[in-house]
Amino acid sequence: MSDITPLSSYLEDRWQSGEGDGSALYDPTSDAIVARASTKGLDLAAAFRHARTVGGAALRGMTFAERGALLKAMSKAIHARREELIEVGRINGGNTRGDAKFDIDGATGTLMYYAGLGKSLGDKTLLLDGDPITIGASSRLQGQHILTPKPGVAVHINAFNFPAWGLAEKAACAILAGMPVISKPGTATAMLTWAMVKAVTDADILPAGVLSLVVGSARDLLDHLEWGDVVAFTGSADTGEMMRRHPRVLATGVPVNVEADSLNATVLLPDAEDATYDAFIRDVHREMTQKAGQKCTATRRIFVPEDMIDEVVEDLGERLAGTKVGDPARDDVRMGPLASKAQLTSAREGIAALLGETDVAWGDPAGGDVLGVDGGGCFVTPLLLRAESATGGDAVHRLEVFGPVSTLLPYADLDEAAEGVRMGQGSLVCSIYGDDRKALGAIIPRLAGWHGRIVVTDAKIADKAYGPGMVMPHLLHGGPGRAGGGEELGGLRGMKLYQQRTAIQGNGPLLARLLDR
Amino acid sequence: MSDITPLSSYLEDRWQSGEGDGSALYDPTSDAIVARASTKGLDLAAAFRHARTVGGAALRGMTFAERGALLKAMSKAIHARREELIEVGRINGGNTRGDAKFDIDGATGTLMYYAGLGKSLGDKTLLLDGDPITIGASSRLQGQHILTPKPGVAVHINAFNFPAWGLAEKAACAILAGMPVISKPGTATAMLTWAMVKAVTDADILPAGVLSLVVGSARDLLDHLEWGDVVAFTGSADTGEMMRRHPRVLATGVPVNVEADSLNATVLLPDAEDATYDAFIRDVHREMTQKAGQKCTATRRIFVPEDMIDEVVEDLGERLAGTKVGDPARDDVRMGPLASKAQLTSAREGIAALLGETDVAWGDPAGGDVLGVDGGGCFVTPLLLRAESATGGDAVHRLEVFGPVSTLLPYADLDEAAEGVRMGQGSLVCSIYGDDRKALGAIIPRLAGWHGRIVVTDAKIADKAYGPGMVMPHLLHGGPGRAGGGEELGGLRGMKLYQQRTAIQGNGPLLARLLDR
Questions:
Q1: Any catalytic annotation for residue B259?
Q2: Can you list the domains of chain B with their CATH numbers?
Q3: Between B138, B454, B500, which is nearest A448 by CB?
Q4: Residue A406 DSSP SS3
Q5: Contact between A459 and A276 (Cβ < 8 Å)
Q6: What does the angle CA A185 – CA A477 – CA A158 come to, to the nearest 5 degrees?
Q7: Residues in a beta bridge with A149
Q8: pLDDT at B139
């Protein structure tokens, strides 16, 4: 790769380049610069106005079926360039082929899912929310809740780890709900997002103003927020807090949906059947190594009955030992580098902090074998740590190392396990492996309030269950507390962020006629 | 009133007095001090811990039916002291008997409504949200969304204008959802809230830790927020912004539901039938004068076809002229004073600002007749202003005078009316009076995205319709943009703030058994 691709932004329906060199984007396998992106001098104010007026009017004038058709066309345009995009995922993200497919197919699949929802909602432009309610002595006096598009623009700020899926899952919900989108991917891996949106604009399928893309530094992006806009953010808790305290966010009260770091836990229950135990080992291994552990849903804390710890270390260690790390271009490599030098530095610091209160159960904090690379690159090899107890420690419940690093926490009884999980203060997902109905029935309600999703795996579904790290459009994605308090996806639920709920109150028969549209 | 009542706070299940004199509470009719409240030295940290642990565990251990029974008992205990509370509303709020009943009966009615919801939800402790969803090739792999109580405490910060209803409507939703409550009324009128909670604690009906009351300055209230807590606030946009930027709110991402100022509009459509027009005049008059205009849902902007302005001024003026203002203890008085000197000052400043861009259509900005009062008191007499056009002006769309003050805005066509309404940048409620289905069908979807509630009044329901200012527990209360972006009430919808939505994913038949509780 001697070429450096200049990336541009798509604003006001044209690709526009910022001034100067801007930020460099790297190949994290070789440390070579592969692209550059600048947003300097771009007129974001005009882009916001254009999206709000032209894009908003276009979408509000369309039925759900028509909006769904847009999503289907987007999905097809992206899928048509799948091989090219997989290659970009490797070059600018260090993705193995499997990791790139997980991201890109996740994007097209989510778009198709919401396209299907749009089709099933059909020729309507507003959604009824619940049934008519009689509110007075006369049955004529009724109320009906409806959902209509919020009147502004949806600003999407995504993380570097899913440059394809991140844009698609947010845009699918917003566009189907009827809001235009301005999307900003994490700069470090934005080449894939840029290539994906190029596939969409080349296909010329979206009405003017519906989708804009900002590639490079965010600069004054949030300064242009107005009443009626929405922000959805995925990234670190620190950046999430920065957005919440942005003067325009505070002044306008624009909703900010945050998906942030979380210390997702898995709990192996005592007396799990063999098939359940095997699924547990399989899933923990996948969550540690897929995308080099750079998933917001990856398992960070592994709660295990204390008398099973040694067995788990042995079985997980065996799997980890068989996972080849190195240049993702090689067919035998199963795990690539982290996405950037910044992530490498952050992961190394995090490992050092965790080692202050944990022991190494498997792996080498100084790094293990890396295939096909002569030094350099952003590699972290898998590392399994072990805490003294489920509820001791501090960093282990608070500090997310965004890489192939997880910690085993031995527990004596279910109370201790539940309390340990709770110490994470809210997560995107928790997974529980077990077959004891009584234990499952006790622990699920206890943990539900701290989680956006709980994955229960028992022997009956062990061989076909998806692991906790796979986010599906049918189910809620987001978690309370430390995970940011956001709600994305979950079918129609994911559109709520972009919709205003309104109670319409009046003459029932008249309302029925007016709202049937 | 020569007695000054010392008010205390109810924390850790006992009434506790703060140190020193604290804040003075006044009778706004006579300017006499009627009570004092101090929170100095109270251990709020201990109160939060107690509520979270003891109160939270108690509620989570109860079924919806049992929680509903608590609300019913609260409602009855408050209703049993109705006459006494009406008197307190007059003494510390300047309420006429009608205004006090509106507040107190609103409180007991809302509690009873949610008690009924609890009964109908029955012997369950968690709510299913939607149907099971098949998520894989195998029909055994399913997802089910559930709603469970958030694990912290609900902090309620209420406005001075509804000391009874404000506590009740928030507490009803939180307690039925399963969260303990710490409620802080606006200090100026907190004597009524204090007396109401005394009725509840004297009846000894709530489990320990379920309800706490902070009477007086908030001091360090928000410093004790933790992950899992929730804040619901009603009051000014400025204070709402202050809460959103509180360090603990930013650090924990605790959800803050804000109900703030809004410039609620009413639109009289051209060609309204006589009955519809009469309802319009009746409702605008009520919204201007009920509670002396101190309702967050009161109508502030009155959009009228330009050729009907003179007729509307005449008809409204006639009604306003018949509304006697003065000492609320007098039987002939229909409107009392504002609630406090601070409100009086703020209203006077607001009137001066509005007069910079409007003319007086009816009333005297210097004040009209006040019955039974020899000067003093916090009186503002009704004032109807008139703007040049529906979309001109600035303050009229932005500045809420929290008193009996509204502005007429003449419009030429529906586009202009809709644009004028939109300039309020989001309101709690908009009301539309008309019989032209085509016009109604055009304007409702256009305005819905800017409103939490739209009240449509046509000739068929004109005589029995509730005005827009009446908040009902069945329907959503809250509005986007300037109105704060909150969502309260609306039946089960009002519980959502206090519930975590969780997708449970796994073996369908097993989940069905585990979640049937």
A1: yes
A2: 44-260+487-514 (3.40.605.10), 265-472 (3.40.309.10)
A3: B500
A4: strand
A5: yes
A6: 10
A7: A499
A8: 87
